[in-house]
Amino acid sequence: MTDKTDLRNLTQDEIIRYVESLGQPGFRGRQIMSWLYRPGITQFSEMTDLAKEFRHILSEHARISRFTDPVLERSGDGCIKFGFTLDDDRIIESVLIPEPDRNTLCVSSQVGCAMGCSFCLTATMGFIRNLIPSEIVGQVCAADEFLRSQPEDERIGPERVTNVVVMGMGEPLNNLDNLLKALSILTEQRGLDLTNRRITVSTCGIVPKMRPLGENTDANLAISLHATNDATRSRLMPINDRYPLEMLLAACRDFPMPKRKRIMFEYILFKGINDSDAEARELAKKLRDIPCKINLIPYNESPGLPYESTPMPRILAFQKILMDANYSVFIRSSRGSDISAACGQLANKDVIT
Fold it and tell me: Is 93 tagged catalytic?
């Protein structure tokens, strides 16, 4: 740990104010921002368009954080799970999902999670703490470093992360302030220069935080729904007791977004629990007036959790009912399950007993 200011914790506007506090003109902050996320830049001495004296001042008062030596696990399908050690020795996980035309990184927003979803391994950790912006952004930077280090003939996709989904450990909207800062850095042209249309934030339904998210970023919204009635959803997701379905769906109708955008509803299918024809028809009815698409997710079975995955024929029948109701419906292919990197499987193994 150090008392130096980590500049990767700061948005561009905050860096400008920081350099002004050091007696420098504001444009120096924009110069620093353009260096902070360049490949291979780890020291202020490498920022060659800054005066040497100023670089020395920065090195005395500030630092550039980065994750080094992550624990890597490789899946047979090409996915890579990263284990990153934080300054307080906590561990978070991210998952890189490579495809020929893109690299999607599933990032964590908290250490552990307080939501207690009964099907999710992260819930077994409980909530430990929020991640700060540099720890969220650092996952992307580290994955970029890894991709650039790989021989071209061994890479499946591009040499950088192209898409980010905030669907890893934690509930992002319970860490909204830090999340918004991280999204600002990710989309800043002088930062990591990702577009909002390639970033998705997934929430289990923290209703009071949904509109503030939409008012402060154009990132895509995904809702972890997983049920069509309160009894089933509360069994799966205790947060439903606080924000029941109708309240959640009303917040979705009120969510500010451009007309061309749609909310993604994620629906994990559990055998015999939420996968009947009747529930497919009820889902179609409940989402009728919300601009949306639906992502059906086969459950990734985990040791110690009392759920089974719905067989594929039943998933296809469920999908057909929704498609016949004129919804865009996708079935998410399960990636990384052999290394516990699939949806709902991220957790520090040392915590699970």
Answer: yes
Catalytic residue among 79, 93, 120, 266: 93
Residue type at position 58: L
Tell me which residue has tokens 């997701």.
Answer: 237
Confidence tier at 304 by pLDDT (50, 70, 90): confident
In the chain, the amino acid numbered 138 is: G
Residue-level pLDDT at 150: 92
The whole-number pLDDT of residue 338 equals 61
| 94 contacts 122 by C-beta, under 8 angstroms | no
**Model-level pTM?**
0.93
Separation of first and last alpha carbons in the chain: 30
Q: Cα-flanking dihedrals φ and ψ of residue 71, to 5°?
A: -80, 125
In the chain, where the domains are located: 5-63, 71-339
- State how far the Cα of 32 lies from the Cα of 61, in Å rounded to an integer: 14
Cα torsion 150, 152, 155, 160: sign: positive
State CA 346 to chain mean position distance: 12
State the maximum Cα–Cα separation within the chain, in Å, rounded to a whole number.
70
Q: Which residue among 117, 120, 252, 343 is the active-site one? A: 343
Q: Judging by DSSP bridges, how do beta strands 127-130 and 199-203 pair with one another?
A: unpaired
Picking from 35-39, 190-194, 300-304, 337-341, which range would have the lowest pLDDT averaged per residue? 337-341
In this structure, CATH architecture of domain 5-63: Orthogonal Bundle (1.10)
Report the CATH fold assignment for 71-339: TIM Barrel (3.20.20)
Residue with tokens 């319970």, as numbered in its chain: 174
Measure the CA–CA gap between 233 and 158, rounded to whole angstroms.
Answer: 38
- Ranking 112-126, 166-180, 225-239, 260-274 by mean pLDDT, the lowest is 112-126
Strands (E), 180-229: 199-203, 220-224
CB of 8 within 8 A of CB of 36? yes
